[in-house]
Amino acid sequence: MQRGSTLEQLPLGADAQRAAVDKARQSLGSIILGKDREISLALACLLARGHLLIEDLPGLGKTILAQSLASVLGLSFQRIQFTSDLLPADIVGVSIFQQQQGVFKFQPGPIFAQLVLADEVNRATPKAQSALLEAMEEHQVSVDGKTHKLPTPYFVVATQNPSDQIGTFPLPESQLDRFLMRLELGYPDEESERALITGVDRRELLSEIKPALNADILLKLQETAAKIHMTDPLIDYVQALVRFTRESPDIETGLSPRGSLALVAAARSHAFIEHHSGVFPDDVQAIFVAVAGHRLKAASNSAYRTPAELSRHVLDSVAIP
Amino acid sequence: MSKRSGTDGSLLASLPWTLAALTFSVLPHLQFLPLWATFVFLACSAWRWQVECKRWRLPPAWLRIALSLICFIGVLASYESISGVGPGSALLTVMAALKLLETKQRRDQFVLLFISIFLIMSSLLREQFLWSLPYLVAGVLFTMTAWLRMSTSSQVSIGDSFKTGARLIAYAAPLTVAMWIFFPRIATPFWAVPIDTSSASSGLSDRMSPGDISSLSMSNAVAFRVKFEGTVPPPQERYWRGLVLYRFNGRTWSGNEPSLGSGARREVDYLGDPLRYQVTMEPTQQHWVIALDIPYEWDLDHTFMARQHQLASVQPIDQRVAYTVVSYTSFRLNSKLPEFARSYYTRLPENGNRRTLELSRQMRDDAPGEEAFIRDVLQKFNKEEYFYTLEPPALGRDPVDSFLFDTRRGFCEHYASAFAVMMRAVGIPSRVVLGYQGGEMNPMGDYMIVRQADAHAWTEVWLAGRGWYRIDPTAAVAPERIESGRSAAMFDGIAASWGFTAPSEFLYQLTLTWDMLNAKWNDLILGYGPENQGKFMEWLGMDEPDWRQMMLTLVAIVTILIAIISVLLMLRYRPPPRDTAAILYQKFTQKSGVPPARGETPLSYAVRLAREQAGMAGDAASITAQYLDARYGPPDLTAIERLQASVNEFSRRF
């Protein structure tokens, strides 16, 4: 049933869908070197209709990744540079009085794009942050009592510098939950860095790149990804993982049901990207750090300090049924 | 898409079953189908099988469309119609054959098996014999097995598929029986299916030309069965009246379509004691209703006594009917005969059969009275060289003359005809009655079987003061033909038609038993109509339920049965111990000698194994991929088969 209904709804055949995904990955990989895993995760996040938080030190290619995602996927792109004096209206838009017609007209803000890069989101005040997060959650904004729908697909890539830097407002945990995944890009390996140094300027490359997808295809891919087959043993595995995070003495707060849903959605689209016949345990493990890392809070006496360590601990402790 | 490629042979395992099930279902239709339809079916089956074996391509769409059109026109040409059982089943058969030519995948095979079920059901529209039920069950079982062969992996043995099929039928059986018993039977159902009638045996013919037929068909087919309520009358009283012929053109005797003789029943004086009995008559396509000479009361609807005192139904008897009759074997018919009727029954053609006429007149002159004359004629048949045979020589231009004077051999029709002509020659009104004589008691069921071979012709003459009086000239020639109950075994020819020179006692007993079972089948199963259902409901305590009540009862019973069966199935259900795929994978990891770590995914394990045991790298990759597909992919039994094959092969090597 599952396979049949998917195919019928899609004029785009399964093979064509796979080819489109592969092409997108390849294009992204040619710009961001040596970060195949992160690219896959970013794509999976997007196909699962989730938002992405990239957290890392400046200069590691966060902005480039967001920009190239927009270009390769063929989405409209807006960038909002978050600063301490940013106001919600700067994000959402304002109603301006039109002198000639004598009416107020809504002037959409930068948030009205299919892919929005919220750069250095932790440098703005909580007020500005929550304007963005509400829009992400509801896929619409209300200004002066009027509701404005955001475009589809809608995808927010927020970047954040690690919070131990001066003059920042780190996103509270409740709001981190709104991001399906949190990625850390990390330093490139030597080979990639060398290619980066010697190669063409990335921004120049970016302007030349041709989109591999468009919004319509992306919507269809999202549909297909959401229907990837998931067997009982795999659901058992996800449940075992979630149960472990709730029961482990190393973890203060475990995964919420929203976290379980996020795990499943992300694993499905990862399986889709990897062309798996169904969701494999490998898919769950591949997305686990990115999806669960920012949702788990280590206990104060825990030996596992970083989210990555904590996630690894969970994965290594839970047997695959 | 690219060019059409040939078949991939994926149906090789299940196609023979589908073909066999289809053939099994078509088989009962074969004898009724036009020859070309059978050929189309066989040819398409063989073609499809070759396509699968040789990986040929299936015929292109235009060819299939053309073939369908040709077959459709063929059916239309053969039957001049497309409705009814005959053309319907022919169409179903050829279309099933053509469907084979576009059968690419499982789904098409499902359609074919549906058609197979439909075909075997539709064969019931033609014949509902005792063996139809076992054949039907076998056909459904066959189709179910084909179904299971198609849906399960080849690991499941044929016997298991067979058992599963039988089990499914067993689950359905109580429901079927309940539905059969309680589904409201309506006397004139609006869903009545046109029963195919072309094949029914016609029984008595409505004319008689003894000169033409040189041999009488000695069919063993049952004409009707009789159950007497009291004593069984002796053979010489068992004259089963069929129809009456009274027009003679020198060669052929014929009668009229039955017409209501308003006073026919009043012309009968019933004497002696009544005989009460039930007749179950096979369809004849004719209007005549068989009853013992001479009927007094009968309970068959739309049936009347026709002018010559034979029973006739307004509708042709096109299906088996059962009715009760009260007859008097002792009676007097038409004590008065009007003048015009008298001329009717004495009419002879002007020319022809001159020698017979002369002889009759001469004998009449020699005899003192009419009765003496009749006796003389019978004496002549008895004393002179006349022979009873079932294979008489053909007769010439004046059949009565050549029979009486030349050949002197014949069976009942010859004697009846000759006798009636001789009577008419001297002005005695006479007519020929066609019917059955005798019958054979079946001790197994305590009823009488009358076969087509018991068909008989006798005469009635009208005598002043006595009315119509039955005279059987055959009795004068071959008294044993009349006196023995069992006519068939007595005469040459019948044995030959059985295929033995003399049927053995055992075989005879066997046929009697078989006939008894058939009679029971007719009575209990096929005869389960509105009347019997009403009786049964009464017995159950439902007094004259209307169909609403019956339907509610049916729904209630079916619901309860389904509930019971479901509960039984639930109690029997044992969850599968563990995924087969998981067990196989575990076997692989144990054999490899490298235990997987806790929380290690199959893919990362495969990478580690390849690093630690270089020789296993290939196996690790392929088995892991197969395991993931089988365990985490969409349901696919072949994936498990592949995994099993790989793991088995792996464990053989390491």
What's this model, at a glance?
The complex is a heterodimer of chains A (321) and B (654). Chain A contains 14 helices and eleven strands. Chain A is an alpha/beta fold.
Number of strands of chain B: 19
CATH topology of the largest domain in chain A: Rossmann fold
Helicity range of the residues of chain A? 40-55%
Terminal Cα span of chain B: 44 Å
Radius of gyration of chain B: 36 Å
Name the biggest interface: A-B, 21 and 16 residues
* CATH superfamily grouping of the largest domain in chain A: P-loop containing nucleotide triphosphate hydrolases
State the separation between the terminal residues of chain A, measured CA to CA: 25 Å
Structural class of chain B: alpha+beta
Helix count, DSSP H or I runs of 4 or more residues of chain B: 22
Low-confidence stretches of chain B: 196-202, 485-501
Helicity level of chain B: 40-55%
Secondary structural class of chain A: alpha/beta
Number of domains of chain B: 3
Order the strands across the largest sheet of chain A as they lie in space: 2-5-8-1-9
Number of separate strands of chain A = 11
Q: Give the integer mean of the pLDDT values of chain B.
A: 82
**Oligomeric state:** heterodimer
Mean pLDDT of chain A: 85
Instruction: Report the major sheet of chain B.
Output: 6 strands, antiparallel
Number of domains of chain A: 2
